[in-house]
Design brief:
Number of domains: 2
Largest sheet: 8 strands, parallel, barrel
Helix content: 25-40%
CATH superfamily of the largest domain: Glycosidases
CATH architecture of the largest domain: Alpha-Beta Barrel
CATH class of the largest domain: Alpha Beta
Distance between the termini: 89 Å
Shape: elongated
Number of helices: 15
CATH topology of the largest domain: TIM Barrel
Structural class: alpha/beta
Radius of gyration: 25 Å
């Protein structure tokens, strides 16, 4: 009898152990982490092709460099037609160079930026303006003082057993994580669930996504999408096409950006922009999108402002317009909208003067108003009529048509109009006045922008 009881006890223990292991290995099990959904998730979020993104560098955005400083200007962000904000990392960071991408605690808001309650309030305020908020997620590496360092098996090691920084980089302030370690991967997924549930975040921009295994992203995204009653936006900082297969909605379009620099700064044939678009979107699955930009935190910090890179404020505006009216998700970076011509670091604070650049801001507002209030530009099919010096594209939907013409040169250009625009009469979408052409040739001022229908 005693042996039988012992057998049953062993069997019960083994069963419980199996169930426990199954739960640990199944990151899509949303009953194990014990988090509670805070607030009310936004419903009916925009389709990917309707997103307009704004990247926030907290350390530059306000004098205090915190969430409240951004919250105070949410109305100004909304005026640009923005419906999704990407916050650069808000988790506790460490390391010798003060990088926000050196995370020392995945579960805490760095006191530099505020508290969990501040983040919750910020997201509530953004939601009240129909703006989603995604957080920057640094999965590839941590700071060297992260608590996970207690288990060296969670990190990549060299042949001598030493933890290393990410291979092929100069990122010596961070330690490379080992995604072959199931416990680490599951803990990472748990942390990603935490912010979606406890802060009501709307998704993530995933840093250095190309460095992380496809298999991890697939498991993590499946887990996040399994959270009940949640719609999320997931954005990969990378160029791998398998990001879409893993479940990401968006990734960066570096090739398109590089082509705009070639055209506007180096005199490349403007027709190549359309060619680049066709090549890029030929590898993008339906309902997925590329994020297109003329600056972001990396470009601005290391290479120069958009004004530096394109060779002047007018050139940067023209490049932005050409980028904006092509298909894709447009991105505006902190201070870009006022033409802030100071390189903005993100390892330290460098405060933007929002009273600067009022005239540039008005141009951005007009461009964004034309884009957001005319469905042709967000949803319409693309037709190309460009020449070697002039970007000319048309977007059509439901029998309606809208146009973007941009002179890519710092000189006067004559553009041979397509038949559709010869002796054309319509509305200038930048000022509401009438717009018309006479004959078959259009004369354009240096870097002139025309948006009409």
């Amino acid at each position: 009898m005693g042996c039988r009881i012992q057998y049953y006890l062993i069997a019960i223990f083994s069963f419980c152990l199996i169930i426990s292991c199954d739960k640990e290995e199944d990151p899509t099990n949303n009953e194990t982490e014990g988090y509670i959904q805070y607030g009310t998730p936004m419903a009916n979020i925009p389709e990917n092709e309707e997103l307009v993104m704004y990247e926030v560098n907290l350390r530059a955005f306000s004098a205090d460099g915190d969430l409240q400083g951004v919250q105070n200007r949410l109305d100004e962000i909304a005026e640009l037609g923005v419906n999704i904000i990407w916050l650069m990392p808000i988790q506790t960071n460490g390391g010798p160079i003060n990088s926000p991408y050196a995370i020392s605690d995945y579960y805490a808001v760095d006191e530099e930026y505020g508290t969990l309650e501040n983040l919750r309030t910020f997201i509530e305020e953004a939601h009240s303006r129909n703006i989603l908020v995604i957080l920057d997620w640094v999965a590839n590496h941590t700071a060297w003082d992260h608590t996970w360092m207690a288990d060296s098996s969670w990190y990549t090691q060299d042949v001598n057993g030493n933890i290393i920084h990410p291979a092929g980089t100069n990122w010596t302030d961070v330690a490379d994580l080992n995604f072959d370690n199931e416990n680490m991967a599951n803990q990472m997924i748990d942390a990603m669930k935490y912010w979606v549930l406890e802060a009501n975040a709307d998704g993530y921009r995933c840093d250095a996504a190309d460095y992380v295994l496809f298999e991890f992203w697939k498991r993590a995204i499946d887990s996040l999408r399994a959270i009940p009653n949640r719609e999320l936006v997931l954005f990969a900082e990378g160029a791998r096409n398998d990001h879409f297969e893993a479940g990401f909605d968006l990734n960066f379009d570096w090739s398109f950006y590089n082509r705009t620099v070639d055209i506007f700064s180096n005199g490349m044939n403007a027709e190549y922009l359309y060619s680049q678009h066709i090549v890029t979107y030929g590898a993008v699955p339906a309902a997925k999108e590329k994020v297109r930009f003329t600056t972001n935190h990396d470009q601005c910090a290391w290479d120069g402002t958009a004004i530096d890179i394109y060779g002047g404020i007018d050139a940067s505006l023209a490049a932005f317009a050409a980028t904006l009216f092509y298909p894709g998700v447009p991105l505006i970076y902190t201070g870009q909208e006022i033409g802030w011509n100071v390189q903005i670091p993100f390892f330290s604070n460098s405060i933007i003067n929002w009273n600067y650049g009022a005239s540039t801001l008005e141009i951005y507002k007009k461009l964004m108003n034309a884009y957001t209030n005319n469905e042709e530009f967000k949803l319409g099919a693309l037709n190309n009529f460009s020449s070697s010096d002039v970007v000319c594209i048309n977007r059509e939907i439901n029998g309606n048509s809208a146009w973007c013409i941009v002179n890519t040169r710092n000189s006067y250009s004559s553009f041979n109009l397509p038949l559709e625009l010869q002796n054309f009469s319509g509305i200038n979408l930048l000022d509401g006045n009438s717009f018309s052409t006479n004959g078959n040739v259009l004369s354009l001022n240096p870097f002139e922008i025309l948006i009409f229908k």
